Amino acid sequence: MDWLTTAITGCVEKVKKSSVTFIDFPHITENGKYIFTRDGVWTGGFWVGQLWLSYGHSGDPALRAAAEHFTQRILPRAQDSRNHDLGFMFYPSAITGWRITGNESWRQGALAAARSLAAQFNPAGGYIPGWGFFGQEEWSGAVLIDTLMNLPLLLWAAEQSGEDRLLQVANRHVEKTLANHLRADGSVYHRFHFTPDGQPVRGDTWQGLSADSAWSRGQGWALTGLAILAGQRSNPLWLASAVRVARYIIGHLPADGIPPWDYLDPDKEAPKDASAGAISAYGLLRLYRLTGEVMFKDSAVSVLHALSRHCMLDDNEGLLAHATADLPHGLGIDQATAYGDYYFLKALLELKDVTLCG
């Protein structure tokens, strides 16, 4: 697949170029230029992850130096007490960096982040609240589908430390999510509300078209989170649930292979969300490794080929165009995003590895 080699090379070169000029963490673009944050908000780990992935592919010492610098900068966030996205922040950065370099302080930072994430768990309710960066709205009873993607941090930390409570928190949160977020057709609610003692109230959304619609990035978070978790624990229920979500996504992909921002938006001219495509493609490849079902690999190839043909950026900042961060709140519409960039490169490299392994 010549297009795959070309896409990986283009992404790595773009990351290298950006590493020279980016002095803070890229978040989402506005008019083709990244908005940066000093502390990484919830997306900082994705920039660090791009640097580590690019270094792993190229061996360029300048990329390693940049990755080390930004990994150090993200460490203070391990103490966050209201942040359900600590897995997003520390798995691509500190854990990846530790695996490559053996830097013990980064392993300890990731362990601290895992403990901070577990400390947010509501034991009576059985869930980690979806704390976010959403102004003054009360989120203590709201659970986001995104949190599934952060639980691999807890499973890794439990294996590293032997702290069984971390594993228990992950297990109970997944159980709660599968019982309430996952719908009969394989789609998922973006947000679900519970009473403090865990009684279900209603399904909802924050970034999708409606409570009962299928916000495409949320479907991608569900698929990929469940696939990663199932691989970590060899859990058949988690794997079967990932398969259900994957089949929903595959059944709702448009002919061009690039997801709309919400699969149930009837407007055919509605914005795309290329980041949802990249996230879902990575999840499909993880699922292919677990099941051997060629359909999952073929679907991932179709999406990634479409993204490489129609969404790779040249002049503007970022790797992947045509993402939609948050349409209902007017944020990052038809732009690049740190998470879209990260999962695009990660999925491309995963496809390369899958192809080489057969």
From TrEMBL:
InterPro entries: 6-hairpin_glycosidase_sf, 6hp_glycosidase-like_sf, UG_Glycosaminoglycan_Hydrolase. It comes from the Bacteria. Keywords: Hydrolase. One of its GO terms (biological process) is polysaccharide catabolic process. GO terms for molecular function: chondroitin hydrolase activity. Gene3D superfamilies: 1.50.10.10. Belongs to the glycosyl hydrolase 88 family. This is Unsaturated chondroitin disaccharide hydrolase. It comes from Sodalis ligni.
